[in-house]
Design brief:
Layout (H helix, E strand, L loop, with lengths): L2 E6 L5 H8 L1 H6 L3 E5 L2 H10 L4 E8 L7 H11 L5 E5 L4 H9 L4 E4 L4 H15 L1
Parallel strand pairs: 1-2, 1-3, 3-4, 4-5
Helix pairs in contact: 3-4
């Protein structure tokens, strides 16, 4: 069984940052990560994730075109079984409330606390095992 984590962020430096932070997990095949630079691209990947087990979606909120908050209900409708964690540079109470009301499990602020994120990912991997 291949476990997939989908990371959605329009910033090009996010992919190498995540690959560096989770290099051991990726090298050992504990899970794989796929990256989308827009919400529409992510929705397409969510729909195509058939030969893998999608265990978590991490999405930035502020993206051009469709925001992460606009993508959230569409992603939840397509995959209600997959938890979604929103990521933002603006961790104010209103943004957090909108994310949680929209179905997000949590809201992480940038810079990302990779220790806390690793804990979330470990929980998802254990549940899928």
């Amino acid at each position: 069984m291949t476990l997939l984590i989908l990371v959605v962020d329009d910033e090009p430096d996010i992919e190498p940052l995540f690959r560096q932070q989770f290099r051991r997990d990726l090298r050992e095949g504990r899970f794989i990560m796929q990256f989308a630079q827009s919400a529409p691209e992510a929705l397409g990947l969510i729909g195509e994730a058939r030969e893998v087990t999608l265990i978590l979606i991490l999405s930035d909120i502020n993206m051009p075109g469709m925001s992460g908050l606009e993508m959230l209900p569409k992603a939840k409708a397509a995959r209600p079984d997959v938890p979604i964690i929103m990521i933002t540079a603006y961790g104010d109470a209103e943004t957090k409330a909108k994310a949680l009301e929209g179905g997000a499990e949590a809201l992480f602020t940038k810079p990302i606390d990779f220790g806390a994120l690793r804990s979330e990912i470990d929980t998802r991997v254990e549940r899928a095992a």
